[in-house]
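ok so for the tutorial part 2 we go from a plain amino acid sequence to predicted structure tokens. step 1 is just haveing the sequence, like this:
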Amino acid sequence: MSYIKHIAGKASQERLEKLIRERLVDGADKAAIDNRIWDLFGEDWSIMFTDLAGFSRHVAEFGIIHFLQVIYESQKLLVPCIDQHDGIVIKIEGDSMLVIFRRPEKALACALAMQYKTMEYNKAKPETEKILLCIGLGSGKILKIGDTDVWGAEVNAASKLGEDTAKAGEILVTETMCQRLSNTPYRFEKLADAPPGASGAYRLLYDIEL
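step 2 — the prediction. this is what the tokens look like for a chain of 210 residues:
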């Protein structure tokens, strides 16, 4: 299976690169090439970007090995939640994860399960070993290149919300994600500022126990 995945991912990447090269040729019909790229790789997904609060501070105070331990523990705790909610981990970089879901409801349910799981875990841990999770969510049409990478405005917005805006315990969502959850019982509070690529951003209202 890993061999098949490798071949599929490589083929997608090569096709994309070929079209990008065609787009760079003088006189190229960029609009037509863009349509081909979206036809090939455009898909509708919900995107989750996770981050751990306090990375720089913990590394400075306790060293990188201590924080590697926290990262390891967080992945051991959170990846099963992602599996249970049918998420696909696209990328893990340092203390961050990029995950995609077919349904926005599952993405948000997973985010809540992850936050509650970390809160329960933290009860028995000293302050220095707590997993303080920040989550950003987006949803919409993106470019999905095999199972190796995703690109798009909602990806960028979810990344910005999860990595730069959300505080420990918070789940922030884009305007599009909030609209797609309008028929659910979840409640949201609008933020003053929206990340680039999103027309608005919201905070999920739920009980946070840090």
